[in-house]
Amino acid sequence: MKYLTKEWYYGNKDVCLDIEVDSKAEQLSEEYYKELYNKKLKNFLEEEKEISQMQYEAEEWEDIQLMDDEGNVVSAREIMSDEEFESLKQEILQNEQNKEKIEPYDEEKLTKYFLEIHNNEIENLKVNLPKDILDEVADIRVLSLGIATEKVKNLVDKYSQECEMAFEKALNDYNKHWYSISDKVPAYIKENYNFHDCRILDIKNIGNDIVFELDNSGGFTNINKIIYKDATMLENNFTKGCHWVYDEMYLCDKGYEFDIAVDGENGYSYITLEASDIIFE
Questions:
Q1: 128 CB contacts (<8 Å, ≥6 apart)?
Q2: Angle, nearest 10°, between helix axes 107-128 and 30-52?
Q3: InterPro entries from the entry (predicted)?
Q4: According to the model, what pLDDT value does residue 82 have?
Q5: Is residue 263 classed as helix, strand or coil in its secondary structure?
Q6: Is 249 helix (H, G, I), strand (E, B) or coil?
Q7: Residue 17: count of CB within 10 angstroms of its CB
Q8: What pLDDT sits at residue 115?
Q9: pLDDT for 227
Q10: Contact at 8 Å (CB) between 231 and 207?
Q11: Residues of the chain scoring pLDDT < 50
C-alpha cells in the first residue's frame, strides 16, 4: 500500500466526542464525577428500557431488488413466480426479525456494561488524544462522559477536524492516482473490483494462478471467487476470515499490481500481488 498505509490507518485517530461545556470540569472533583456518572448511567438505563419494550414491526414490500448473474439490478417479480417471491419475502422478514431480536431488560447486566463502555472510552482517550490536550484535562473520566471546559472542547474539536482532513487527504490522493490509470483498466475490472467488508476465507495457488475465496455476505458484491491470472504473491499477511478493508491498484510490467489492506488477527496488514489479468466468479 502506498497511500492507505498502516501509518495512515493507525495515525488518524477516531476522536468522535459530543462534548458539552461545563465550568465544573476545570477542577478534579470526585463528587462531581460521581454525580455526572450516575446521571449518564440513569439516562442510559432509561433508553435501554424503552428499547426493550419496543415491538418489532415487519416491513411490507411491493417489490424486492436483486442482482442478476451479470451484476444488473432487476426486479424480483420479473424473474420469480408469485410463490418464489412470497417465499423470498418471508425469508427476508425472518432474517430481519432475528437481527432485530431485543433482549429483555436486565438492569444489573446493563449497569456493568455501561461501566465497561466508560472504562474503554477512558483508555481510548488516553491513547488517541495528544499529550498537549490531555494536559489540559482535569479529569479524563469526566471528559469520557462528554463534559469538558470550553478550552478543551475547542482543542478536541480542532484535533478531530485535523485527523479527518488527514484521513481524507490520503483517500483523495489515491483517487487522483486511480483516475490517472483508469482509462487503461478494462471495464469489467473497474465494475467488479469492489470487495470492501468481504471476508477472505482462503487464498490458494492453482497452477500459475492465485485464487481468493470470499464470503461476500457483508460486502457489496455477489462475487465469491477472484482468480488472479499468472500471478505472483509479493506480500502475504492473510489470516483465515480476515476482512478486506481497502485496496489500491497499479499498472506494472506483468499487468497489474493489486494491494489489499486486510484487518484480521495481525491487525491492519497487507496482501500484495501482481497478475496479468483477473477473473471473477
A1: 13, 14, 15
A2: 120
A3: DUF4085
A4: 79
A5: strand
A6: strand
A7: 20
A8: 97
A9: 98
A10: no
A11: none
> Can you tell me whether residue 272 is helix, strand or coil?
strand
Q: Residue with C-alpha cell 464470503? A: 215
- Residue located via cell numbers 490507518: 9
- Inter-residue contact 181 to 251 (CB < 8 Å): yes
Q: Is 150 left (phi over 0), alpha (psi -120 to 50) or beta?
A: alpha
Determine phi and psi for 279, rounding to 5 degrees: -120, 140
DSSP-assigned beta bridge partners for residue 211: 204, 227
Residue with cell 477516531: 14
- Give the integer Cα–Cα distance in Å for 139 and 181: 51
Burial of 122 (0-12, 13-18, 19+ CB in 10 A): middle
Is 0.85 topped by the overall pTM?
Answer: no
Alpha helices, DSSP H, located in 104-215:
107-128, 131-134, 140-144, 150-181, 187-192
Long-range own/partner contacts, residues 52-59 (CB < 8 A, 24 or more apart): 52/102, 52/103, 52/104, 52/105, 53/105, 54/102, 56/97, 56/100, 56/101, 56/102, 58/93, 58/96, 58/97, 59/93, 59/96
- Residue 179, sorted as left (phi over 0), alpha (psi -120 to 50) or beta, turns out to be alpha
pLDDT of residue 106: 94
pLDDT attached to residue 55: 63
**Cross-strand partners of 233:** 273
How much is the pLDDT for 83? 81
